[in-house]
Structures are given as C-alpha cells and as structure tokens.
User: Which sequence fits this backbone?
C-alpha cells in the first residue's frame, strides 16, 4: 500500500504527483518547475543535467547535488542553496510517493546507464536511481515493451 506521508506542514500531495486528468503531461509545471529553475540558476547546474537528476543525487544533510555523466559516474557536486532545502524536501516526499506507486503498478522503472544496469539489472526500479523530476506519463521500453517512466522535459530557464 502506498504511504501518504508528507513532511510536517504538508497536507496534500503536490500537484505534480496527482494523476493527470486528461492526456499525458510531458512538461513539468507549477511549483516543481519553479524549483527546477531555481536549482538550475542558484546551484549553477549544467543546463543538460537539470531534468536528469536522480533522487539519490540529492544529499539534503550535506546540502549538495551530485552531477553524473552519461555512464552514471559522479563527476561533480554542487551546493544546494539554503532557500531551496525545504522546497526540495517537500518535492522529494511527493517523488517518493510516485516511486512507490510505480513499484506497486509493476512499471519497469526508469532508464539507467548500461554500465549500471549490467552491474545491477534492477537498479532502474530502485529509489536512488528514480528521477528527481519524473514525467507524469509512461512510455514503452523499446526492447521489452514494458512501460517505464521518463524524466520530465526541463522547462526553459527564465532569468
């Protein structure tokens, strides 16, 4: 059963994680989009990494985000701005619920680098490899045909 736990002061599931009412929403919206934009600007994240961050890349205790290359190797760590920690904590709670639902529904998980998948074939189903900003929709895996969840299409950065 999916846990409906939220951080203190959060009473409902953030809008990004509620089931879509109509059609598939590919682009991130609302508070999550603002959080992503804020992190990209404040933490000076490389533009091509913002939509592909993983839940396990975020270390709230040390206030840093790990940046990975295409092979899944951590190549840098960037600080999380102090004013983003609470919003990120709330966001992660919603993402965790999304991950738990995906596991219950038997989705194939998320894409992980081939080097990682060869070491651990089920890594795409694990919490650390889950997208920090998952899309609402699922797509079929081109090889197995099983549905899996892609990352969001990162919104354009507005300065």
Assistant:
């Amino acid at each position: 059963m999916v846990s409906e736990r939220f951080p203190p002061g959060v009473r409902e599931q953030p809008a990004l994680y509620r089931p879509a009412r109509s059609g598939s929403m590919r682009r991130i919206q609302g508070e999550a989009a603002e959080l992503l934009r804020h992190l990209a600007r404040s933490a000076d994240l490389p533009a091509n990494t913002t939509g592909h961050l993983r839940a396990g890349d975020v270390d709230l205790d040390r206030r840093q985000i790990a940046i990975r290359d295409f092979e899944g190797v951590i190549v840098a760590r960037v600080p999380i701005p102090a004013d983003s920690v609470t919003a990120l904590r709330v966001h992660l709670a919603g993402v965790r619920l999304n991950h738990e639902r995906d596991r219950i529904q038997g989705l194939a998980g998320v894409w992980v680098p081939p080097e990682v998948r060869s070491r651990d074939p089920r890594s795409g189903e694990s919490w650390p490899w889950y997208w920090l900003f998952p899309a609402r929709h699922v797509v079929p895996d081109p090889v197995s045909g099983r549905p899996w969840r892609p990352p969001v299409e990162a919104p354009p950065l507005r300065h």
Q: What stands out?
A: Residues 6 and 93 are 6 Å apart (CA to CA). The chain has one domain: 27-148. Confidence is low (pLDDT under 50) at residues 1-26, 155-159.
